[in-house]
From TrEMBL:
<keyword id="KW-1015">Disulfide bond</keyword>
<dbReference type="Pfam" id="PF01083">
    <property type="entry name" value="Cutinase"/>
</dbReference>
<dbReference type="InterPro" id="IPR000675">
    <property type="entry name" value="Cutinase/axe"/>
</dbReference>
<dbReference type="GO" id="GO:0052689">
    <property type="term" value="F:carboxylic ester hydrolase activity"/>
</dbReference>
<dbReference type="GO" id="GO:0017000">
    <property type="term" value="P:antibiotic biosynthetic process"/>
</dbReference>
<protein>
    <recommendedName>
        <fullName>Cutinase</fullName>
    </recommendedName>
</protein>
<keyword id="KW-0378">Hydrolase</keyword>
<dbReference type="GO" id="GO:0072330">
    <property type="term" value="P:monocarboxylic acid biosynthetic process"/>
</dbReference>
<dbReference type="InterPro" id="IPR029058">
    <property type="entry name" value="AB_hydrolase_fold"/>
</dbReference>
């Protein structure tokens, strides 16, 4: 199992996704390793961090899949990391901050076993892969996806994706009101145990309690 970790804005490597990767690794007999997506992880509003990160996801994941085609790739991402992962997979851009709409950067034949988003800026409401307190709420991320991007993502990845969003987190559910930083920073504590079991199911490993 190869974990691809995409950290959030201002986090140092490996960031929030590492605790989830560690929990999964500790509870499977499968061999595991990980790599970080290498990108600045500074504000996408005032820098080219998003564009660098999106390109890095496409390049790194494609290169690894070609190099190790038998590995199971598990992508774990948080905040801006979820933004760049989702946009590399489904196509990016589509607004004034993220630029013009672009096609996916990762070929469909690049095998991915599991995708986890925590605090996803492009969270889409009422999807079968939505988890967290926003799972049954009509909330959208601060950068709503274009309908064509939603279709592409769902056709390719809906069965292997888990998207965790807390209602009130100003990144994944800004339509709910004020930006609540504490909710945006609570994903590992709130959901790692559940998400780890979910990932273990996806990689056909033994669940833990």
């Amino acid at each position: 199992v190869h974990f691809v970790l995409a950290r959030g804005t201002t986090e140092s490597y490996p960031g929030t996704p590492y605790s989830l990767a560690s929990l999964v690794a500790q509870n499977t007999t499968l061999r595991t390793n990980y790599e970080n997506i290498i990108y600045p992880a500074v504000s996408e509003d005032t820098s080219d961090s998003y564009f660098i990160g999106r390109a890095a996801v496409g390049a790194q994941m494609t290169a690894y899949a070609r190099r190790c085609p038998q590995s199971q790739i598990v992508v774990l991402s948080y905040s801006q990391g979820a933004l760049i992962v989702g946009d590399a997979l489904a196509g990016g851009g589509g607004n004034s901050t993220l630029g013009k709409a672009t096609p996916p950067l990762i070929p469909q034949d690049v095998a991915k076993r599991t995708i986890v988003f925590y605090g996803n800026p492009r969270h889409v409401q009422q999807q079968p892969y939505d988890f967290g307190t926003a799972g049954v709420k009509l909330v959208q991320g601060k950068y709503p996806r274009l309908p064509s991007q939603i279709r592409t993502f769902n056709e390719r990845y809906s069965e292997i994706t888990g998207d965790w969003c807390n209602v009130g987190d100003g990144v994944c559910s800004p339509s709910e009101g004020a930006d609540a930083l504490s909710l945006h920073m609570a994903y590992a504590m709130d959901y790692d145990t559940f998400a780890a079991n979910w990932v273990l199911d996806k990689i056909n490993a033994v669940r833990f309690r």
